[in-house]
Amino acid sequence: MRNVAQSRKRQLPLHVHISAMFTCLLLLLGLVLGVFNYQQTTQIILGSSQKLFGYLEQDVQRDLLDAYQPIRHALNLLTLNPDAVTDRPERRTGLLLPFVQTLEDNHSLSALYLGDDNGNLFLVRPLRNEAIRLQLQAPAQARYEVWSITRSARQGGVESKKIYLDASLAELAQRTIANETYDPRSRKWFIPAHAEHDQTTTNPYLFFSTHEVGTTLAKRSAGNTVLGADVTLSQLSATLAAHQVTPGTQIVLYGADGRAIAYPDFSKLLTAQDPEKLPKIAELNPALGYLVSQGPDAQRRLYDGQRQWVVTRFNVEDGGANGLQLAMMVPEDELLADAYRLRWQGALVTLAALLLCLPMGWVTSRLLVKPLQALVREADAIRRFDFNYPLKQKSIVLEIDQLEGSMSRMKETLASFFEITSSLSAHTRFEPLLQSVLLETIKIAQAQAGLIYLTQNDSRQLELKGLIINGQPQDLTTQPQPDIDPDSNDNPPWLQGLFQGHDSVAHSLSLEQAGDLQPIMAQLGSQSIHLIGIRLHNRHGETVGILLLVLNDSGSSDDQDHLRADRIAFIQAVSGTAAVSIESQRLQARQKQLLDALIQLLAGAIDAKSPYTASHCQRVPTLTLMLAQAAAASQQPEFEQYNPSQEQWEALRIAAWLHDCGKVTTPEYVVDKATKLETLYDRIHEIRTRFEVLKRDTWVDYWQARALGGDDAQLSERREASLAALDQDFAFVAQCNLGGEAMQEADLERLNAIARRTWRRTLDDRLGVSWEENKRQSTREEHDLPVTEQLLADKPEHLFIRPEADLIDPENPWGFKLEVPQYKFNRGELYNLSTRRGTLTNEERYIINNHIVQTILMLSSLPLPAYLSNIAEIAGGHHEKMDGTGYPKRLKREEMSLESRMMAIADIFEALTASDRPYKRSKTLSEALSIMATMCHDAHIDPQLFALFMREQVFMQYARQFLDPEQIDPVDIDALMLKAGLSG
């Protein structure tokens, strides 16, 4: 805190900063103006020098073109001369006149000549001045030198002679050259020209005979002879001398080898150290040599260690095989002498003006402070999310006033954005969310209509999901709009823009251009509209829909205000938030669909597991919801407070679908147990086999007695009586096994008497059984075979010990109150056959009833949201009774929710009327309702709900959908209500 306080002490008010800054700026302005004037003057001078450089380039190019172009034409014509094509040297004298005329027409030509494959040469050279005649030792009147070299293959010799002619081409003198070493075939001009059909140009060099600087142009004729022309470049030096900008300017024209070809002081080209070669640039001027050494990328300004230079370099196309390079250097101090003078003059004028402007800084800063302080207070309010702070301070400065306007709009935008975000987040249902997104976006854009399209789940097609016109949501069935295919080539341009990656588009459309939007325009009464399209995309950038906003085109300037980039950007931001909300809702909807599918899959699997439950799990939800809807619509006092929310409806539906999910843990053979001795198979067959053994023993006893001489009549009578008794006893046992009627005491006594019959087992019953059963058999003593056993036995191995995990703690957290049998299974034969009612033993009845315990445990373990937290209570209460004698918690009516009491009625009615149970006949409506009336009277089901079930005829609504026609019989509602103990 101390550092912060010290920092604030060092801070100064804004007007002090502005005054100081204004003073510094004024001082800086003077400096900048002076520097600017200097820089501009410098740039102008440098720009002018660049123009001079350009003029120099043009002049050099023009001089080279003037020198080369006529000679190229002349060479092309001379190669067509018959005397130039012939291979007979004596005929080449016919070229004299054409050569002379060409030399007279082109004063830059130093010589014209022709060489052939045999090494012959014919050359004509003009002698234009006395220096050349003296150099070539020609007569004073000579105007031309003709040099002829003839090589004879037969004679094996070389004839070389020079002939000197006057202006009329009369011979003045002739000189023969012995031991001639010149061979045109080895010359640089001959070799490339002989190998090509086009003209060739050599690099510049010093001519051997005249010591002139030039190049040679050569071209091969049709007869494989090569014509050459020596072109002098001495005129270029004069051109360079004419372009010296200042006294110290250095200019040079040079070739690719770095040797000078033209220089303002032409004499320096002829005084090089090696007279046979052109001088290096550094030999002419070290500064030029330094420039050339910098390479082709040298800057426009260069310092050579002594002086600053303004430099330029460029290529010249003609003048050699690879063209020429021109370099120019101008001393900067000579070039910018005027700029230096103007710089100091400008500095003095600027300083005088600055001294007059300093007082304005203080006044200006005071004018700026107050509006900025107001903006600071406004920003602090926005930082606190206080969007109600007034801002009325205006400023004479346009930018500050614009900032105030921008901040006001930002405040409105943020307030609107937070309001919309809060509104969107409050929606938990998809359809209201879409309407809210569309309506809020229309308000922001001040549009007259809006459409929202979303992608379909199974394709990229966009389907209309919402339409609002003039603030009113429209019925989509009466406002049909075709689906949009993003991949179609027939989409209008404004729509294609959204599918090509643009997040937003804005277009103005006439009625003819509107296409499918024409019905909307008709409702708006507009002939033209402005259309704003927003692409809705998810977190991965994938298009999930598009939002279209329609604005009337009134032709006023306010229309353009609605299409401002910042407004569209805000709409796009809101739409982005809406797109995320839509995506979240759709994801949540898909998750709910997946959950529903899994729930229905589980219910279907439970129903498919056993024919004894058939479609019970799928019909109970329908009947439960029917009864719940009747309660919600009822005006009875007991139901007037029952108005379930969407979440409560969902919880009831899920609970109804999962009310028997615990049956997945119930062994199938227990659920399907049709006889008392049935387990995985019906053990009556074992009992029958024992009776068969006893019957065989009766026959054995009969035949043994006959064999010992017994009376046949007495033995037969005793045998038949024994067989008849066995048949009767087995028939009784088989009848008991069915469990169709209740067992009386006499039945139990007879069953015990039959059980005391014995039979003899001669095989070990421990062979071929599982290790688990073998373990149970080890609890009884093993006897030597044969063993006498009871016909119906309860053996120790028939008892299955209940694991600790299956025991229910009386203090269990779920409140289960069940009497848990000692054994998990008791498969004793006499014990099972002695079951008084039905086919299930106490142990099996507990297993059946335990499914509701498993249902509660399974549903309680699910990580359900808060609004689904009562699913376990609803689903787990349908076997409870209003008097507290039900299971698994023995809840009374007041301890049960209304929904769980509804499900109890639905579960019972469906079970009574189901026609797809193989173990019983389905009840008619009157029979089922009569049984339920009795249950209501006995406080097994809720009386108020049963009365509602009867009065609103919910049973008939269900019957028309699920019952067979023959089950639907007349029902006396008043009589049933009376039977149930309820008033009509």
What is the H level of CATH, i.e. the homologous superfamily of the domain at 610-664 and 841-979? Hypothetical protein af1432
**Compute the gyration radius: what is it?**
59 Å
Average of per-residue pLDDT values: 77
> Helicity, in percent?
40-55%
- Low-confidence region ranges: none
CATH class category label of the domain at 610-664 and 841-979: Mainly Alpha
Shape: elongated
| Secondary-structure-derived class | alpha+beta
Instruction: Please identify, by name, the CATH architecture of the domain at 610-664 and 841-979.
Output: Orthogonal Bundle
| Number of helices, where a helix is a run of at least 4 consecutive DSSP H or I residues | 33
Describe, in plain words, how this protein is organized in 3D:
The protein has 984 residues and is α+β, with helices and mostly antiparallel strands. Among the domains are: 363-412; 427-591, 2-Layer Sandwich (Beta-Lactamase), CATH 3.30.450.40; 610-664 and 841-979, Orthogonal Bundle (Hypothetical protein af1432); 684-802, no CATH class. The protein is built from 33 helices and 24 strands. The strands form five sheets. Strands 1, 2, 3, 4, 5, 6, 7, 8 and 9 form a nine-stranded antiparallel β-sheet that branches. Strands 17-16-15-20-19-18 form a six-stranded antiparallel β-sheet, sandwiched between helices. The protein has a five-stranded antiparallel β-sheet with strand order 11-10-14-13-12. A hairpin with a 6-residue loop joins β7 and β8 (213-220). α2 packs across α12 and α29 packs across α30 (925-937). The longest helix has 65 residues, at 14-78. The protein is elongated. The two termini are 82 Å apart.
